[in-house]
Amino acid sequence: MSNLREAVAGVDAHQPYHHGNLRNELLDKALAQLKQVGPDKISLRALAREIGVSQTAPYRHFADKNALLAALAAQGYRELQRVTQEAADAHNDPSQQLCHSGNAYIQFARDNPELYKLMFGPVIACPMDYPELAEAGSSAFQVILNIATKGVSEGVFTDRDVSLIAHAAWSMVHGIASLWIDGMYKCTESSGEKSMILDSLKISLYGILKRDGD
Amino acid sequence: MSNLREAVAGVDAHQPYHHGNLRNELLDKALAQLKQVGPDKISLRALAREIGVSQTAPYRHFADKNALLAALAAQGYRELQRVTQEAADAHNDPSQQLCHSGNAYIQFARDNPELYKLMFGPVIACPMDYPELAEAGSSAFQVILNIATKGVSEGVFTDRDVSLIAHAAWSMVHGIASLWIDGMYKCTESSGEKSMILDSLKISLYGILKRDGD
DNA sequence: TATTTATGTTGTCGGCGAAAACATTGTGCG
DNA sequence: CGCACAATGTTTTCGCCGACAACATAAATA
Predict the structure, then answer these.
(1) CA→C1' distance for A3 and D12 (Å)
(2) What are the angstrom distances between the C-alpha of A207 and each of A201, A211, B7?
């Protein structure tokens, strides 16, 4: 009997010494565990156990726990970029693009709260140490930057520095998303939280539109 | 020799069995450690060691680590309420109050980034389990709610639900504060980050002001 | 003074992140 | 074909942490 695990399992399914896809499976399981229990509760050992591999195997693919979280966050940024870009592409008017892209952003945060917290929260120690993460982050920001550029050049947005407008817009949607996730949006009126979020978004973005006398 | 610590220290300074102020000193040292190394790196054992008390003594004053963090966050909310209220009290015009209070809010976050992350980040497990924390949080929110109420009643703000306006304003300043703390405000122009923050704040809050035709 | 309550200590358990030393597999080069 | 080497996974171990149970001491109170 050359393989103990085989014997214990009682099957002859050949369990290779090398997993072959450990890195990806680690990311998958980590994402699942993240959604269940939150970011800081993730344990490399638990992941390894779940996958059925030794507790130090993950260190062959990630320098440490932080690096795994960074890779996870980078995936998140790429997905965030995708959904916001899609929403923007569905419209031509920059105002519409901004509003719908922002809405998609907030919806992403709502659909993946733990991932979103991981991406923007203080869980990852030194985010700037991970080029993949930085690159994914600025790519995601590029979406809103492009909208701002278009809005200013078409004269729809207030005529200020494009980077400033993009940052302001980003702040708004990020603020709404964060507070919503954290349950800070207590709706007092009959209309639900969701419509309140939309109204809040509209109020916020209104400050960006060009006004008479600009 | 009734006291080992006394013997080891070689002094007769009476080291009382009871510390007498352990709870407060724990909070103090925890705050200091928070500012140095961030929220999740805080260790009850390290705190106890630093204070010179056994590693389980903290559990006499806090049910667990989470409870200590919650108490720390509650302190933060009270301080945040203080600075924003002070900034608001220095003006009469609701627009000015909103702007300056928001600026004070952002400044607080900038001055106490780790504490701010603790207050709003995902570090504290079940915030709603701590009445002190919830109370401090809603008291802090009350500041901005009062400004919104005044602004609407005086006809300076757009005529919408007061709670909605307050939440929108809160989202804006929170978004700016969060992104600034996380180093996401990369200023591309000659003017520094700080003026960019102020401009961003103004753009955001502009959406709240009453407009012709409202 | 005697009892109860608040506070601090010792000892211990299980879990975790991480490193060192070792084992196995696949790969490319002679 | 065969062998060295790199990639990947394992075993073992260390130190740290949060948390609990049992015990010790001081303070308050009756």
Answers:
(1) 20
(2) 11, 9, 69
